[in-house]
Specification:
31% of the residues lie in helices and 24% in strands. A five-stranded mixed β-barrel has the order 5-8-7-6-9. Helix 1 crosses helix 3 and helix 5 packs across helix 8. The protein is built from eight helices and nine strands. The structure holds hypoxanthine.
């Protein structure tokens, strides 16, 4: 696969989806590590395995079963991406964000992204939900921005603004839904790192110092590409582990722990997302 996905490849993938479903959703949902069972609630679903879609990057990680689920949630047509690919798997930024480009081609204008993240903010507990209100794109700042490469001016500008990547109205809606359902919803800045190794204590101290509340290995490239194309974005992290610079002996972070806590959070996250969809 070439480093940069072309407009023609995006069109071919979008056409393949249109041929396999009658749904034309305006809302897209991306489900992160351990959160894929949220797609089970989608009614009358058309299921499209990533492997059946041209040019679509396929995931190699446990907990990321790769398929698109198109159907209705709360009577709204949705496209749910069950599983995603990550930069650490060896794909380029353009490849990992290709699904968002295809969603834009399909007419999706609202994107809800979920992920698993390590909690840096000392007030956070494992199992908390955190609304993302800002991000630090470490890879982007260091030269791996997903918009690097040819720009399609018909999709978005060469130098897009990023002052409010996470839609203030959607955030306020999410807080209202959380309050009405007695769900504690934290809010904070998500630091995007490449992984796949978890952070050293020194790296965690650094991330805390620069203002991050949570750290994870996904979501941000999709947000940048979504905003470039003018989508409204809502991002929700599930704090699956405490990323503390001074862990107690035996308190190491493991992928197993991330998946298990993710599963415990799913019912609460599902309720929150259903409430948000009802009011969209
Ligand atoms: N660090 C980075 N990514 C993560 C973590 C973490 O502690 N937990 C879940 N994803």
């Amino acid at each position: 696969m070439d480093q940069f996905i072309t407009t023609q490849q995006i069109d071919e993938a979008a056409d393949a989806i249109r041929r396999r479903t009658a749904y034309a959703p305006r809302i897209g949902l991306v489900l992160g590590s351990g959160l894929s069972s949220l797609a089970d609630a989608v009614m009358d679903a058309d299921i499209l395995p990533f492997a059946a879609l041209p040019h679509w990057p396929t995931s190699t990680v446990a907990g990321h079963s790769g398929r698109l689920v198109l159907g209705t949630l709360e009577e709204k047509p949705v496209l749910v991406m069950q599983g995603r690919v990550h930069f650490y798997e060896g794909y380029s930024m353009s490849q990992i964000t290709m699904p968002v480009r295809v969603m834009q081609r399909l007419g999706i204008d609202t994107l809800i992204l979920t992920n698993a993240a390590g909690g840096l903010n000392p007030d956070f507990l494992a199992g908390d939900l955190m609304l993302i209100n800002n991000h630090i794109n470490f890879l982007g700042l260091a030269g791996n921005n997903p918009l690097r490469g040819p720009n399609d001016d018909t999709v978005g500008p060469r130098f897009p603004d990023m002052t409010a990547p996470y839609d203030p109205e959607l955030r306020s809606l999410a807080h209202n839904v959380a309050a009405s359902q007695d769900i504690t919803l934290r809010e904070g800045t998500y630091a995007y790192v490449a992984g796949p190794s978890y952070e050293t204590p020194a790296e965690l101290r650094f991330l805390l110092t620069v203002g991050a509340d949570a750290v994870g290995m996904s979501t941000v490239p999709s947000v940048v590409v979504a905003r470039h194309g003018g989508m409204r974005v809502l991002g929700i992290s599930t704090i699956t582990n405490l990323a503390t610079p001074d862990p107690a002996p035996g308190q190491e972070t493991s992928h197993q722990e991330v998946l298990e806590v993710g599963r415990i959070v799913v019912p609460r996250l599902t309720r929150l997302i259903h409430g948000i969809l009802q009011r969209l």
